[in-house]
Specification:
heterodimer; A: about 280 residues; mainly alpha; about 75% helix; B: about 220 residues; two-stranded antiparallel ribbon; 4 strands
Chain lengths: ~280, ~220
Amino acid sequence: MIAQLILATLTGLLLLGIHRKVIARIQRRPGPPVWQEILHMLKFSFKSTWIPATASTVLFRGVVLVAIGIWTAAFFVMLTGGSLLVIFGIYMLHKIVEHGFGLSSGSPYGKFGGVRSVISAASEIPLFVSVAAIAIFTRSFDISDIVAYQQVHGPLMFIAFPAAVAMYIVILSKMPFGPFSIVESKELVSGYKTEHFGIWRAGLEVCNGLKTTVLLATFLMVFVGQLPILWLGAGMLLLVVSLSFACALTPMLSPFDSVTVQTLVTGLMLCYGAVLFIGVRA
Amino acid sequence: MTNLAGVPYYILEFGDELVYFTPYTITLFLLALTFTIFVLISMPERQVDIAFGGDAYTTKVISVSEMRFRRFMAIACGLASMGAMVTGDIFNFTLFTAMVGITNVGIVAAVKSPHVQNAAYQYGLVALSATVPLFGGAAIYAAATGSLSMIELAKGALPAVPFVAKAFLVLGVIGEGMAPFYAAKAEMFRAPGAPYVIMCSLSSLLIFLRVIEVVMLG
């Protein structure tokens, strides 16, 4: 299990490195090597660690452990074919982690990163509608049941296409350098993670790697079905490259516009959910 | 949908009241417990404010009396959140949700900042109004099905829950701090005291996540 966890973390970091590389090439820059995020994680692991004098020390450290803990739990829920609702819950609770990272240091940059994370809470509701739409078709929240449903009826990507689009946008909103990455935009230095250095930053990198793997693999399992490991890897790579194109070709929105776009997506998804619900009742 | 979010590992009965733990509710409960422990053992940060137009900056220090009051309210908020995560009774869920709203106001009410107090006042009005559909929803559940037990609703043997009851319940929870009513709440996060302020956003998210499970029943 530890080996799977390490492999998932490294895979996620490698995918994030590829994400940066693709964005750079689209923008005609050489970009960093694809293993840059892995090097970051290793580098921060051995750098000196300090905590700002103004920080709430327990929260400053504790929130890193919570971040790794929740995504480790999400990874094992995904591996064991557990409830999609738990992964959805963990995804939403990642907001609290970002908020905690930002507020705990006392830094104004971190604080604004954290507050922006909270105000973009509307981005999570499409995920809920997406999960509910899947459950309307499959009559279950368990990933194992959703996979079994697709073996009989074909990929949910075609059956519930708007739900797949909504979840894709949700994943896009969590990718770095994307149009919705307002929590870590450059006017806030590094946003909510500005003050976390050394081993605590390495912990955050581990969390990011795990999160990327879990979100991409869950998307493929839920909307395409159970894939052999090589096909799963290829699918994740394809997803990342498509996300990189979206990130490279779209400017980062202002916080107000970001929330507005996410709210519009939410409204559309709620309409889709209502149509599905009425259809089931009828 | 008639299933609880997973098979309950453990059901604790208090007469007709009950508490149950599924993989989903345990996850949410543990998160609430973890952050409540953070509130218990951590000291607040000293928030840094930059004075624009110069190089000066100031740090805000929370007085001991203010810290004690806010810590008490944050712990109460954590306990209410934990209760809402594991209760198997819809009326108790609404009670815990209303308590979360009250404690959220309490967490920031002691902060001596007009921005924060104004936001807390506005949020308090929204949360107060939201209790009407919240308790109304629970009342319709009881009137329509004759039961408030989530376990009984999950069995699917009771009459169907009217859509309006579920809508009221969700509306009530949304009013306690989810989109689009979180706007006032976001202003509350200007307040210093990260371990306490974070309980405001955590409790709202947890309650929202739990109501999703609740409305799937019956």
